[in-house]
Amino acid sequence: MTGPYLPDHGDGGYRVTHYELDLDYKPHTGRLGGRATLSGVASAPSTRVVLDFGALTVNRVSVDGKPARHAHGGGKLRVRPARAVDGPFTVEVRYSGVARPIRTRHWGELGWDQLADGALVASQPIGAPSWFPCNDLVRDKATYRISVTAPSPYAVLANGVLVDRRSGGSSTTWVYEQAEPMATYLASVQVGLYERLPLAIGQDVAAPARLLRAARHDFARQPQMMRVFEELFGPYPFRAYQVVVTDDELEVPVEAQGMSVFGANHVDGRRGHERLVAHELAHQWFGNSVGLSDWRDIWLNEGFACYAEWLWSERSGGPTAAVLASRAHARLARSPQDLRIGDPGVANLFDDRVYKRGALTLQGLRTRLGDAAFFATLHQWTHTHRHGTATTGDFVALAQRHSPDPLTAFFRSWLAEPRLPSM
Ligand SMILES: [Zn+2]
């Protein structure tokens, strides 16, 4: 047994129940001014509160309304309250500067990023401190209220439901409420010259005018996909689902809670990337509602989202999951077999083998359990851990309850051993 992944991130001594973020953003200069109010609960008396926070300048910090001393550096904001915190407390941090992504060793630049005209947030897994001070621990989920003021022609999207929009002078303030708990890496703000395209009740696309026509075609089947996934996985866990298509190209789409972000290059007017539409939508159940306790279990997000791509193919007239699985198996058989997907290591969190072998694990489980018990397992999984967090051990135990035969050796061979099992 090894320790948690990314042990330098987050602080287990307290949890955050709510973030209130008031931001002011100027797209032309990239300047971001912010006030973050965190409602926390300390598990024991403490004379320090340590937050994760990147390179923006901290102007003022207070704890429970009283100014607090603080030191900021190395990605940490160390706050010394005038009085020790114990139980519930609030920290308010005022900050400003030009927001930039955080450079990481394994995953390039993460977090708040300037687009050609606007901004995008892509934090997975540790980019959140680039734009707000937080307890950057994947299992520490909180509710959010995100308010962003930007020049009036720009549209602002953030997680949750738009509860207020006020224009004054040349700027507009957009206020979003995320009532369901959310991990920090899934918090997101998107700013751009976007137009809104409604797909269905609770499903919108925001895209630049030049891409609307192609987006209308490429996302046309998403409402149908939503119905199929609700049938297979259980009720959609959030109030709305927003898709953003940026004017810029993106290497990969970005998942956020209640939101997915695609690049201009993912929209071709021919549904050439519908696989990704399915993948990102599936993350709302697997990754966002059912969150991770530790990054080690990343296959619970990516294997499931990849398997959802295959399920959508099967249900929309494409190759079946079994056919796609055998193709993926053949490709994996030719790849190096030196990765344990149940514990891939921090550097390999987003290795494609985690995705494909994770999906193959689910296809193997489906074959063993049969469709009725397999999909009952998925329903129970999303229901039991809705808006919470879970581990691989939780999934294995749940699947076992749906199987008359022991599954220990099956899961061990797929998740804990490097050698690829046969299908
Ligand atoms: Zn994914």
Question: How would you describe what is shown here?
Answer:
- Strand 4 and strand 5 form a beta hairpin.
- Helices cover 26% and strands 35% of the residues.
- With 423 residues, the chain is an alpha+beta fold.
- The chain contains nine helices and 23 strands.
- The two termini are 28 Å apart.
- The protein has helices spanning 212-218, 222-233, 274-282, 299-315, 321-333, 352-369, 371-384, 392-401, 408-416, and strands at residues 14-26, 31-46, 49-52, 57-63, 66-67, 69-73, 76-80, 85-98, 102-104, 108-115, 118-122, 142-151, 155-158, 161-168, 171-182, 189-192, 195-200, 203-207, 241-245, 254-256, 259-262, 290-292, 388-390.
- The radius of gyration is 22 Å and the shape is globular.
- The relative contact order is 0.10.
- The protein folds into two domains: 1-188, Immunoglobulin-like (Sandwich); 290-416, Orthogonal Bundle (Neutral Protease, domain 2), CATH 1.10.390.
- It has an eight-stranded mixed beta sheet with strand order 5-4-8-2-1-12-15-14, with no helix packed on it.
- It binds zinc ion.
- Residues 255, 279, 283, 302, 305 line the site of zinc ion.
